[in-house]
Amino acid sequence: KHYMVVSLSKGQKVDLTKTNPGLTKVHIGLGWDTNKYDGGQAFDLDSSVFLLGEDGKVTGPADFVFYNNTTGGNGSVVHSGDNLTGDGSGDDEAVVIALNDVPASIQRITFTVTIHDADARGQNFGMVSNAFIRVVNEGSGEEVIRYDLGEDFSIETALVVGELYRHSGEWKFSAIGSGYQGGLAALCNDFGLQVG
To answer: How, if at all, do strands 158-167 and 93-98 pair?
Structure first.
């Protein structure tokens, strides 16, 4: 049976597991395009995942999953690592999540994208277009949820793209699309991770 892809706009929330019974493993794809500009510096965008408790905070560095710590949640959350080619599916980076194995203490799985060294390179999300997040059934390869962020950003250097969260024993997805200044450090501090 073929399901329609649910296409979300900012602020929308949608059932994931309830409307896709039997879905246990998801591939979260993140992608973007960088616009041409004359700064002469390469763009290095990174996706990171924060595994948050009831209080909206991580319990420690192990709950911050990114290219230098690619596995979290007792192995239930696996990051593809940095700099995929973006061939094929169009995802630049990806995270695979075994939903049934996520520790009960983790209530929210938050997906972010940041620009490495943004301040030094004079870069921001105003130079990035076509950013998206999509949820794919890992078993069937079928895309079930997609959120295209649009071009609402200018000086921000960090984005909270979306999140999976628990609700009444099921997982839901929320399209957040919020920009922040201060890059990854600002996000880490918000989510309770002390960075230098």
So the answer is: unpaired
